[in-house]
Amino acid sequence: MTSGKLSRKVEDLDSLRFMMNLLKEVRVKESCFETEIKTIMDMYQMLEHHVPPGFMAKEEIDKKTVLRTNWKKLVGQAHARTDELSKTQLGFKRSLINDIASFKDDVIQVSATFADCRI
């Protein structure tokens, strides 16, 4: 699910906020994932040791096998998305600086117009 959410386009501030919160969530999970995955793998190892062969479904064994790989792909996707947003940020920053400069010029022109009207 998270992988699909990371693929969403960032078009406005709401979608940017959503993406930033999602990336934060992945970073928080990343810090404790190795501990959690080790615990899960230890539990599966214990199950495999104590239950008879064929007791666990093949789908579950397959999911266990690709769990770490899928997590690494998700983290890689999150890092790529972070880099992409950082590059996009530069364009927005330049645009904002240009808009502010234009706004200052407009304020100066309006102030000059009002100063002429008072005389």
What sort of overall outline do the alpha carbons produce when their principal axes are compared?
A: rod-shaped
Please give the share of residues in helix: over 70%
Q: Which band does the percent of strand residues land in?
A: under 5%
Strand pairing plus helix content: what structural class? Answer: mainly alpha
Mean pLDDT: 85
Taken in chain order, the helices and strands follow as HHH
Topology record:
Layout: H1 2-6, H2 13-50, H3 58-118
What does this structure look like?
By secondary structure, the protein is mostly helical. The protein has one domain (2-118). It is built from 3 helices and no strands. The chain has helices at 2-6, 13-50, 58-118. Helix 2 (13-50) packs antiparallel against helix 3 (58-118). The model has no long low-confidence stretch (mean pLDDT 85).
What are the salient characteristics of this protein?
single chain, rod-shaped, 3 helices
